[in-house]
């Protein structure tokens, strides 16, 4: 078996946990990934030895350890493009005094890549690696608006839009209308749609042909009082990133 085949099979094993979202037996991994039982056993043994998998209990089902997440977080945190963005994000946090977030799409969710929490005692708190729904977050709306109309329609037909809070938009027609209105002004908002009493604003950022969302988030009572200023500061940071050659 070639090194390339071994690498592909290891990735298949890890991706199967992502798909199934539960512990899996060695037999299930072998069948689902279409890997011979003896080969699958050898690969699983290696992953366990390196602390990437562990046995969950008596049935000896397997599940990935946090080590995968920790490695991914370190890699992302040291991405040269993200490091170049951080001074602009830090300046935006200092100007707004609110939490600044950089996020990207991961299937039907948003994953936070960088989070710079605001200095105020009462603030929006989040962590790198947090996953949020597309439809209830301003960064998620940024991603949805970038989809081709037919692709967006198909995606919506396959979704059950969860009512995360009482303010979450769960009507397909209203969500599409909301996205169109946001595209016209160049920024996307949520007002208590993902977290009660939190307002967030996002603008699109493209890095290496990948769409990201840059957002400012904080308590609605403060954000709403300075809403126009927040939009202006966010767009200014967007322009700085483009002018600096970091984003397109």
Radius of gyration (CA) equals: 21 Å
Question: Which strand-content bin applies to the residues?
Answer: 15-25%
Helical proportion? Answer: 40-55%
Summed up, the domain count is: 2
Element-level helix/strand string: HHHEEHHEEEHHHEEEHH
Question: How are the strands ordered across the major sheet?
Answer: 5-4-3-8-7-6
pLDDT under 50 segments (min length 5)?
none
Overall description:
There is one protein chain. With 248 residues, the chain is of the alpha+beta class. It has 2 domains: 3-65, Winged helix-like DNA-binding domain superfamily/Winged helix DNA-binding domain (Arc Repressor Mutant, subunit A), CATH 1.10.10; 70-243, Beta-Lactamase. Helix content is 49%, strand content 20%. It has 10 helices and 8 strands. Helix 2 (26-33) crosses helix 3 and helix 6 (138-145) crosses helix 8 (172-185). The mean pLDDT is 92.
